[in-house]
Amino acid sequence: MYNRRYLDDYLARQTSQAKRKNHAISLLMIDIDYFKQFNDEYGHLVADDQLKLTASTLKESLHRPTDITARYGGEEFICVLPDTGAEGAKQVAERILRHIRALEIPHKLSPHKYLTVSVGTASIEAKQNYNTDLTALADRNLYKAKNTGRNKAI
């Protein structure tokens, strides 16, 4: 699992490369739903194990060697998807949701009854404005997902 410093550097390099080659780039911001309640209910050791399982599930959900997952902070993760437009980002986000749901980790304090994630997506299509702040856009979309029921991608 990559850390925040590596993520920032990798995203900057991939955005520059996308601009140079006129390719798309996408970013997914993933947050574990109701994680504070999960941590409070099940304890830090169980919560830490679930963070690790979530991280490995995210990594396994990415199929290309240039796609990476990094810990963003707390229970948030980011996936950088070079050469991927909005439609591809949506497909990866949906795959992540399916894989996390398939784990069926009990979470009795969640309305979904299992541990779930919310995903905010952001994309720059080929030849668009490469100065777009993908992280800020993905964060806004993540909060839309969280504010409209969680356990979904926007």
Would you mind describing this structure in some detail?
The chain is of the alpha+beta class and 154 residues long. The chain contains five helices and four strands, in the order H-E-H-H-E-E-H-E-H. It has helices at 4-21, 35-42, 44-61, 86-103, 134-147; strands spanning 25-32, 68-73, 76-82, 117-124. It has a four-stranded antiparallel sheet, sandwiched between helices. Strand 2 (68-73) and strand 3 form a beta hairpin.
Protein traits:
154 residues; alpha+beta; four-stranded antiparallel sheet; 5 helices; 19% strand
**How does the helix and strand content classify structurally?**
alpha+beta
Shape: elongated
Low-confidence stretches: none
Cα radius of gyration in angstroms: 15 Å
How far is the first residue's CA from the last residue's CA?
Answer: 24 Å
Order of helices and strands: HEHHEEHEH
Largest sheet: 4 strands, antiparallel
Count of separate DSSP helical elements: 5
* Helix fraction by DSSP (H/I, runs of at least 4): 40-55%
What would the average pLDDT be, to the nearest integer? 96
Number of strands: 4
